[in-house]
Design a protein that fits this description.
Largest sheet: 3 strands, antiparallel
Strand order of the largest sheet: 3-5-4
CATH class of the domain at 26-145: Alpha Beta
Number of helices: 6
Shape: globular
Strand content: 15-25%
Radius of gyration: 18 Å
Oligomer: single chain
CATH architecture of the domain at 26-145: 2-Layer Sandwich
Order of helices and strands: EEHEHHEEHHH
Number of strands: 5
Distance between the termini: 20 Å
Length: 173
């Protein structure tokens, strides 16, 4: 079976050799942002805010709308950790870190401002004014994954996957 990358136009076999798979560096990048919540009251405010946002229909959810506009995020989730004293934002995205952060500052800075108001040692707010500090905060609080980072489709971006789904009549994936 042959496939063509939607962004590069490169055609290749769908089953890589073991040697090629072992050396492939994924186009995706993992991020595990772990932030310490200020207090139990801040946890409750965060829980309520995130539950409310995540409960909105896709068309009204600013997080999902931003993820769809940016079109580089494969997966994203929020997880409360360590007896609700920390919040993790876990994502897998295409491309480089700086572009990813720039996109999110431009798309949903208001959500990050609301989240970070409840975190210890947060960067200065608003994030759209303090972009470098925001990026540094995320880098500092990213729990790096052990390498190699596994991806079942290391050379496919979100846009590639959408294009293939549309070509197969599945609509947007």
């Amino acid at each position: 079976m042959e496939r063509t990358s939607a962004t590069s136009g490169i055609t290749g076999a769908s089953t890589p050799t073991a040697a090629a798979a072992a050396t492939t560096v994924p186009v995706q990048t993992p991020l595990t942002l772990i932030m310490k919540i200020k207090s139990p009251e801040d946890y409750e405010a965060l829980r309520q805010m995130l539950s409310q946002l995540q409960g909105l229909p896709d068309s009204q959810n600013p997080i999902r709308a931003a993820l769809n506009r940016v079109a580089t995020v494969h997966f994203a989730r929020f997880v409360f950790l360590e007896n609700n004293t920390k919040l993790a934002i876990i994502t897998t995205f295409d491309g480089d870190f700086d572009t990813y952060i720039k996109d999110f500052v431009e798309q949903i800075s208001d959500v990050f401002n609301r989240l970070l108001a409840h975190m210890e040692d947060a960067p200065p707010l608003p994030v759209e004014k303090y972009r470098e500090e925001f990026g540094a905060y995320i880098k500092k609080n990213d729990a790096p994954s052990l390498q190699p980072f596994y991806s079942a489709y290391p050379d496919l971006t979100v846009l590639d996957i959408h294009a293939m789904a549309e070509a197969q009549g599945m609509g947007r994936a």
